[in-house]
Amino acid sequence: MIDFTPLFRSTVGFDRLSDLLDDAMRYEPADNYPPYNIEKTGEDAYRITMAVAGFAPEDISITAQPNLLVVAGRKPGRDHVQYLHHGLAMRAFERRFELADYVQVKGANLENGLLSVELARELPEMMKPRTIQIGGASQPTTIEAQPSGSQKAA
């Protein structure tokens, strides 16, 4: 077991980081069905693409929760079929994706057997970088918002 105590001595408000590291240490290999890709499509934009051939939009559910995306699929009425050869998986599945803070699901599309889920990270104004002016005894301290994408040293 790895001791992360030195890391936590220099952090404030990262209790969730501790939980994520603990979860990662207890990782159990999961089923690899269906296969998927995670792409970075922009500075704060991402796409998850899953191979779900044979599933219709009504067979798939996408649920977004705080810091979690759950994609599940189920083909109804396949239990009574007698296969001579069963090579196409099309079995029920559930995939869970841990999302970083402020990552939102923007939309989903199913085309040619590929399910694409668009994600974007949107920081609230209060979380964006800002400049802190240091005042003296006779000058009050002021805080100014910085334009997005630029950072100045205070």
From TrEMBL:
Compositionally biased region (Polar residues): 136-154
A Pfam family hit: HSP20
Database matches in Gene3D superfamilies: 2.60.40.790
Keyword Electron transport: no
Superkingdom of origin organism: Bacteria
InterPro entries in UniProt: A-crystallin/Hsp20_dom, ACD_IbpA/B, HSP20-like_chaperone
Coiled coil: none
Keyword terms, alphabetized: Stress response
Family annotation (CDD domains): ACD_IbpA-B_like
Domain (SHSP) ranges: 27-137
Annotated segments matching region Disordered: 133-154
PANTHER family, sorted: PTHR47062, SMALL HEAT SHOCK PROTEIN IBPA
Family, similarity comment: Belongs to the small heat shock protein (HSP20) family.
Name of the protein in question: Molecular chaperone IbpA
